[in-house]
Amino acid sequence: MKLSTKISVCILVKNAQDTIKECLESLQGFDEIILLDNQSSDDTLKIVNEFKNKFGNLRIYSSEFIGFGPLKNLAISYASNDWIFSIDSDEVLELSALKELENLELNPNNIYAMPRKNLYKGEWIKACGWHPDFVLRLFNKTKTKFNSNFVHESLEVGNLNVVKLKNGLRHYAYDNMSVLIDKMQKYSTLWAKQNRHKSSTMASAVLHGGWKFIRDYFFKSGFMYGYKGFVISFCNALGAFFKYAKLYELNHQMLSVSLVVTTYNNEKYLEQVLKSIESLDYLPNEVLIADDGSGKNTANLISKFKQNFPCELKHIWHEDRGFRLSEIRNKAINSAKSEYIIIIDGDMVLDRSFILDHLKFAKKNQFLQGSRVVLNESQTASIIGGGNVCEFKSFKSTRNAILSKLIYKSWAIKSDFFNKKDFIKGIRGCNMSFYKSDCMAIGGFNESFVGWGREDSEFVARFLFNGGELRRIKFAGIAYHLYHTENSREMLELNHQIYLDTIKNKRVNWQ
């Protein structure tokens, strides 16, 4: 049976040799089939190519795993028709559904949902949360797409109407316990990675798992299917437990972090900074000295520290052609191996808990401004002479977990700030942190800036326009600013105009 409407079928496949032939045979009524292989290692592609001899309008593509949502959107991009029918490689379109589609008047503003029969060892299970099961499968790609979820992807419904069809799919869900357990482990891991930084506790994991079993086995009639109902309900419960347990474990793993230290011909201060890094309670994975053109004395100092430094120490240098802070920062960030970036100036002596404090509050799409304690000239001289910052403790330099969390939770700035004002006070690049991927998404620091001033504020503005937020961590992430004369402000007015232009045009990328 051939459909009169041109519809492209999109299938993701990986190691589906047991089901792919029957799946493809059920789809011969469609205009074309787009098959996206995710590095199959069994006979899947052999079976697919044999089918291609009978159905010439089958196109085969391949991709590594980038998440189910992105993979499905990639498959859709290869389709020549606007109407898309999405099906999994372990599903079969029933003939009655094909006939229903033939008589359907398709409306681009509709998404069509199909009922799905979920089979365990060949038996249709109408319990355990597996029934009724309507899945969104037929849609117009000019109106919607899949979200970017790694797992449990779904179509973006928005203002579209969902229309339920009478006939649908047969789903070979699981053949045995081993497959059920393997998929549960795979999907719970992907879910935890996808939801990283959402809160979770082991208690919540137990509660989610326990409730899932009670609901699926008792309230959703799993007990009606004998041992199969028990196995499915129990594995569903394990899946719920492991999702939140893995999320808890993942959230308590430390991020890899690169500490970037900017410097220019100031070995006396840089030495104190490097000594404070050596004394940290938790070390970064690497330290990158972002050197804006210093002479040999700085290079010799770094070489000296490299001999016994407790973590990898890199010297990122470019020629001295004036104040090019943004450019050398970008070079250091591009060289960084870690997923999280902390930047300090080469005149900032760090509190022992500095790295731990930043990591405690680190989140995607978030710019963190750490705490700065300014030392006077005599205090700085004391540090240079071998003194300790502990001698200069004050209320501002006191670590306080309760206050820092309270301020962090209750105070944030987003892009709507610029609807009323054009300048955020207190942004200082001498103590800041963010995810490297968030920095790369906006092109890093704006290299149009020459001379001191506004490069940090402009970076934060673009960060916010890209959907991020600014949060401050007071009474944590503390660094002590060694005294020095102020930098020349002769370029401040020109730099301020660059900053205002970013605000006016709501720029995200400076390039």
Any chance you could write out the topology, listing elements then pairs?
Elements: E1 7-13, H1 20-25, E2 32-37, H2 44-52, E3 58-62, H3 68-77, E4 83-88, E5 91-93, H4 95-102, E6 110-120, E7 123-124, E8 134-140, E9 161-164, E10 169-174, H5 177-194, H6 202-219, H7 226-251, E11 257-263, H8 267-278, E12 286-291, H9 296-306, E13 312-317, H10 325-335, E14 340-345, E15 348-350, H11 354-361, E16 366-369, E17 371-374, H12 377-384, H13 401-410, E18 431-435, H14 436-441, H15 455-465, E19 469-472, E20 478-481, H16 492-505
Parallel strand pairs: 1-2, 1-4, 2-3, 6-9, 6-10, 11-12, 11-14, 12-13, 16-19, 17-20
Antiparallel strand pairs: 4-8, 5-10, 6-7, 6-8, 14-18, 15-20, 16-18
Structure, described:
It is an enzyme of class 2 (transferase). Belongs to the glycosyltransferase 2 family. WaaE/KdtX subfamily. Its EC number is 2.4.-.-. This is Glycosyltransferase. Residues 413-485 form the Galactosyltransferase C-terminal domain. By secondary structure, the chain is α/β, with parallel strands linked by helices. It folds into three domains: 7-174, Spore Coat Polysaccharide Biosynthesis Protein SpsA, Chain A (Alpha-Beta Complex), CATH 3.90.550; 177-251, no CATH class; 257-505, Alpha-Beta Complex (Spore Coat Polysaccharide Biosynthesis Protein SpsA, Chain A), CATH 3.90.550.10. The protein is 36% helix and 21% strand. It is built from 16 helices and 20 strands. The strands form three sheets. Strands 1, 2, 3, 4, 5, 6, 7, 8, 9 and 10 form a ten-stranded mixed beta sheet that branches. The model has no long low-confidence stretch (mean pLDDT 94).
